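Local shape tokens

___
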Amino acid sequence: MSATASTVRRPRALARLWDSDVVWSFRHSPIAVISALVVAVLVIAAVFSRWLAPHDPFDLASLSLMDSLRPPAFLGGEGDWSFPLGTDDQGRDVLSTIMYGMRVSLVVGVLAVGFALVVGIVIGLVAGYVGGLVDTVLMRIADIQLTFPAILIALLVDGIVRAVLPRDLHDQLQIYVLVFAIGIARWPQFARTVRGSTLIERGREYVMAARVIGLSPLRIMATHILPNVLGPVLVIATLNVGLAIVDEATLSFLGVGLPPTQPSLGTLIRIGNDFLFSGEWWITIFPGLTLAMLVLSINLLGDWLRDALNPRLR
């Protein structure tokens, strides 16, 4: 009897989800659908690059300088369909390096935003709930940091870490250094949003009732206030994933990001920039187009999610 009831409940739950406001908004937004498809294709290509990529750009035994600087296959001439988007100066397939590099960019972007999200939520909850001097100090720190561009903060943090860590250790931990630098540069947006929502929620009846029954402030913040302030924070997180990917690409383009042996999209653009004016434009143009499509699609999804979760726009 219980099994039958559960099987009946599942279609009803799926039907309610399908008819929900958010899913209805998604289904009737062509821009959101196309953006989601583009992001899905790029993410699948990055995550499964080991199996989907035509070549392994890190397998030195398979590389040949005789294949270097081949143009894209669709241009004819020296192009070869085994290298659809051409090759770079080391004979690496550009399509394969893009797929592997996109995986690194996505990992750095998602982890950096996750780190900024956790730091911002904790600081915002404490500042909004405790108030007083604690709120003033934390928000003034956030205000000071917001006066500087995020990329400058990331450059400063990366420079400090480079000065503290030995060179060999820094190269091994470079991806974690990038995640930390970009995350530290972007936490104030989350903190200010959570703090503003917490100031509103802490005066509501359910929070006062939780205080009356003797719940600790930590439990009130974690189980009562936090679920009610996550909506706008998730929208900001979606938008910041694209910005974090751009930050990583900028740092790598400037030469302070990931090394060429562990290329991201920014590293590939920097390497290809050296050959742009000598005629080998495909080495930098295709990674640049991939970065633009990825960031644009994520930002369009974030814009749709912001509108879909805003009750005033329904």
Summary: Residues 35-53+95-313 form a domain with the MetI-like fold fold (CATH 1.10.3720.10). The chain is about 75% helix and 0% strand. The mean pLDDT is 85. The first helix runs from residue 2 to 18.
